[in-house]
Amino acid sequence: MATQTRPLSSELLNDNEDDDCLSSSNFSAPTTEQSEQDAFHLGRPNGYLTGESRIERAWVHWKKLGQPKLIVAPMVDNSELPFRMLCRKYGAQAAYTPMLHSRIFTETEKYRSQEFTTCKEDRPLFVQFCANDPDVLLEAARRVEPYCDYVDINLG
């Protein structure tokens, strides 16, 4: 029995909406019943992005951020707001938060208020989460969306 999925179209991959396909609510992997036309938009018969397409999209994202050359990497217990702002004062053009636990972040107000702080000068900002449940990760990402430019997933 075939399942119905929303086809991934080229509209999702334009420069303004290319992050939309990251949401589990509106993205589905290509199926065998998916039309060849939909798969063609991604550049490969199986519907997945080619290595070259992924590289091109990465450059587009980098340019949208203002082409930063100095980025402060995520460091557990060391990349909180005061440290990020100090790094920015000395030339960092973008920064990561420390790794945050998505489940604790979504469930605990105290954790959110203590572990995630930012300000308008703290941009571009990447918020890093670890997770083992995609729905919880999505909820955490949606909570920080107004305060950051990207969400980074720590996979281990």
List the helices and strands and how they pair.
Layout: H1 36-41, H2 51-64, E1 71-72, H3 81-89, E2 94-96, E3 100-101, H4 102-107, H5 109-115, E4 125-130, H6 134-144, E5 150-154
Parallel strand pairs: 1-2, 2-4, 3-4, 4-5
How would you portray this structure in words?
It comes from Olea europaea subsp. europaea. Residues 72-156 form the DUS-like FMN-binding domain. This is tRNA-dihydrouridine(16 17) synthase [NAD(P)(+)]-like. Residues 1-43 are annotated as: Disordered. Keywords: NAD, NADP. With 156 residues, the protein is α/β, with parallel strands linked by helices. It has 2 domains: 10-63, no CATH class; 65-154, TIM Barrel. It has 6 helices and 5 strands, in the order ααβαββααβαβ. It has helices spanning 36-41, 51-64, 81-89, 102-107, 109-115, 134-144, and strands spanning 71-72, 94-96, 100-101, 125-130, 150-154. Strands 1, 2, 3, 4 and 5 form a 5-stranded parallel beta sheet that branches. β1, α3 and β2 (94-96) form a beta-alpha-beta unit. The protein starts with 35 loop residues before the first helix and ends with a strand. Residues 1-42 have low confidence and may be disordered.
Q: What labels describe this entry?
A:
disordered N terminus, alpha/beta, TIM Barrel, 156 residues, flat, five-stranded parallel sheet, 12% strand, 34% helix
